[in-house]
Amino acid sequence: MNLQGVAALVTGGGSGLGAATARALAQQGARVAVLDINEAGAAKVAAEIGGLGLRCDITDTASVLAALAAAAEAHGPARVLMNVAGIGGAKRLIAKDGTPMPIEDFQRIINVNLVGTFNMIRLAAAAMVKLEPLQDGARGVIVNTASVAAYDGQIGQEAYAASKGGLVSLTLPLARDLAQFGVRVATIAPGLFLTPLLHELPAEVQQSLAASIPFPKRLGQPEEFAELALHIVRNGHLNGEVIRLDGALRMAPR
């Protein structure tokens, strides 16, 4: 798909991987709506790229519908959806004092990363499938963000790994479901990337994390994630696939 003039949505676009993806889309001529629960972050990135910044809580259907309507009014219906929004969190199943993990902690991460992403897909896809097809019959592309934790979840990552594993498992059935409309679906499973969260860690901790990556022995750059996201959009035969982007990293138990 040629991105020139195409309307695109980026959730979690106010920082990190989402912001890099929004910038990359804009550089290719896309009309980008930056969606984030952090309205200030979304507005800042949007101002930088000449896009539209909108507050959007992906777990709240009313919030998503409002953002989709505002984006469509400004840019037209979206043919590209980049689902990058998500949260982390680690907590052992049984704490040192013997108490079990609060069920609310598990539900919160599942609700944002898995249910929220699905909520965004179902609502954006409902409009996408009604668009006029392009010359190759394509109507749109959806790219989701999982994690290598879906495969190599570490101790304390039960909720996070389950949420990202759900996105991995969703990819093929979504692609099959939407194939009849000419909408492709793919997922990126990034490893250790230099996001704002990792930026906050001490330099020695960052270096230790980077040393665990076989090659290249450095943390991934958000621009590398964005580059792969754009390639998925451009490559019309990429569909129903989950791509690890991790420098051959396989996470240890802890």
UniProtKB/TrEMBL annotation:
It comes from the Bacteria. Coiled coil: none annotated. The keyword Transferase does not apply. It holds the Pfam family adh_short. SUPFAM superfamilies: NAD(P)-binding Rossmann-fold domains. The keyword Oxidoreductase applies. Keywords: Oxidoreductase. InterPro entries: NAD(P)-bd_dom_sf (IPR036291), Sc_DH/Rdtase_CS (IPR020904), SDR_fam (IPR002347). PANTHER family: 17-BETA-HYDROXYSTEROID DEHYDROGENASE 14-RELATED (PTHR43658:SF8), SHORT-CHAIN DEHYDROGENASE/REDUCTASE (PTHR43658). Belongs to the short-chain dehydrogenases/reductases (SDR) family. This is SDR family NAD(P)-dependent oxidoreductase. It comes from Ideonella azotifigens.
